[in-house]
Amino acid sequence: MIVGAGLAGAKAAETLRAEGFDGRIVLIGRENERPYERPPLSKEVLLGKKDDDSVYVHEAGWYAEHDVELREGVEAQALDLAERRVGLSDGSSVEYTRLLLAMGATPRRLRVPGANLEGVSTLRTRADSLALRARISGGGLRVAIVGGGWIGLEVAAAARTYGNEVTVLEAEATPLHVPLGPEVGALFADLHRAHGVEIRCGEGLFALRGEGSVDHVTTSLGHEIPADLVLMGVGAVPEDSLARAAGLKCENGVLVDSSLRTDDPDVYAAGDVASAYHPLYRRHLRVEHWANALNAGPAAARSMLGQDVTYDRVPYFFSDQYDLGMEFSGYATPGAYDKVVFRGDPASGEYIAFWLSQGAVVAAMNANIWDVTDPLQSLIRSGKKVEESRLTDPAVPLADL
Ligand SMILES: Cc1cc2nc3c(=O)[nH]c(=O)nc-3n(C[C@H](O)[C@H](O)[C@H](O)COP(=O)(O)OP(=O)(O)OC[C@H]3O[C@@H](n4cnc5c(N)ncnc54)[C@H](O)[C@@H]3O)c2cc1C
Q: Can you give the residue ranges of the Reductase C-terminal domain (predicted)?
């Protein structure tokens, strides 16, 4: 049984069948549609560059053809570990021999005055993306984005591209402070400013104001910013309430070991909801990235089938904003590194950033430079010390580092 019909859940079902499992597979999804991928929702779909239906993980007929019982629009509401049973919102329940929790995450909403006004939204689902596109695609609006994280910045880029006025409020000193730190975060601030976005750092949200629908944002510094539309891009919280209520160990997500197993030997977790022990970083990490759902879903499926699995992928993320395409590998939150060095001039838009900890590369980001993920991830995985002069010298092949 798989709870959560997102990318991790769908890929787990696919792997179970690909590995020859011929028993019953039930895939429970709260949304009223089959599993889909979310990255295009803040990029190509929001920009109208990709067909709205191109996001689905499988063709509509795939589930029946592979004998996967996909139950759309049904929520798992109770988990009884002793009885091995999951109670569903339609009043039925399903017994399992192995259970995968793949419930993803849900956008955080700041509880400030006016948070429920019309025109204040978050972006997680396909429906959210289509509704946002319908509003911003005509241009001419004043769009305020709370949070300079990945989703906030991608929406800022789309809203600007459509010709809206865009302001981003970011409480930290730079956008993307938590995933990238201030050095590279500042480059993203520059990128957006160069496209006419007002990036206000060190300034959070105090309140939203308006009669029925939002018309102003009051910032933590007391500034009033006119806004026809507000997007809250302040992170997501793991959907782990089902697991918590059942008594599974949870700490910023469902805790699993490196085989993606919870403290109940028949229950596994993968994707955004899981905080998995990472052998490379020797700590639990909750990775909220597409590639993690894509790879951890299948890894969990193999683990459920009794195979010997160690899930130790280097975290990987990608983003597209305006004409910048980038990929990021590793883990580089402030405190996890001591220095950032660059190969190539960031001002040129084509560069690789390396985050170093005691001389070893712990993370790397390639901006508008492609097909380098494998050597960068090998370097991160090796943990070896590298001379800075070699990292920054474009003449030294990445594979030789
Ligand atoms: C707008 C957007 C853009 C993104 N862009 C990028 C990007 O550029 N690069 C990148 O690497 N990552 C990106 N991500 C992150 C990536 O999409 C996620 O990491 C990925 O979707 C996680 O997949 P998942 O299957 O774990 O969870 P989800 O996709 O969240 O799927 C979980 C599903 O389970 C359902 N569910 C929850 N609880 C229950 C329950 N009790 N019963 C039944 N169903 C339940 C949820 O409704 C949901 O449909 C983006 C995310 C968003 C929202």
A: 316-401
Q: Helical H runs in 223-289?
A: 241-246
- Which domains are seen in the chain, by residue range? 2-38+56-106+237-304 (3.50.50.60), 109-232 (3.50.50.60), 323-400 (3.30.390.30)
Answer yes or no: is the C-beta of 5 below 6 A from any ligand 1 atom: yes
Q: What is the reported pLDDT for 84?
A: 98
Cα 391 from Cα 401, distance rounded (Å): 7
Can you tell me the distance from the alpha carbon of 30 to that of 236, in angstroms, rounded to the nearest whole number?
17
In angstroms, the CA 203 to CA 103 distance is 32
Of 234, 201, 48, 226, the residue nearest 140 (C-alpha): 226
Q: Is the distance from the beta carbon of residue 328 to the nearest atom of ligand 1 less than 6 Å?
A: no
Atom of ligand 1 at shortest distance to CA of 316? 11
Distances in whole angstroms, Cα of residue 399 to Cα of each of 48, 234, 332, 349:
38, 37, 21, 22
In which residue are the tokens 């609006």 written? 141
319 C-beta closer than 6 A to ligand 1: yes
297-322 residue pLDDT tens: 999 999 999 999 999 999 999 999 99
pLDDT tens sequence across 308-364? 999 999 999 999 999 999 999 999 888 989 999 999 999 999 999 999 999 999 999
* Residue in 219, 232, 246, 360 with CA at minimum distance from that of residue 3: 246
Q: In the chain, what percentage of residues exceed pLDDT 70? A: 100
User: Ligand 1 pocket: which of 290, 316, 317 to mutate (most atoms <8 Å of CB)?
Assistant: 290
79 ligand 1 Cβ < 6 A: no
Task: Report CA(124)–ligand 1 centroid distance (Å).
Answer: 7
Q: Considering only CA atoms, which residue is closest to atom 7 of ligand 1?
A: 39
Q: Closest ligand 1 atom to the C-alpha of 42?
A: 1
296 CB near ligand 1 (under 6 Å): no
Q: At what angle do helices 150-161 and 126-136 cross, to 10 degrees?
A: 40
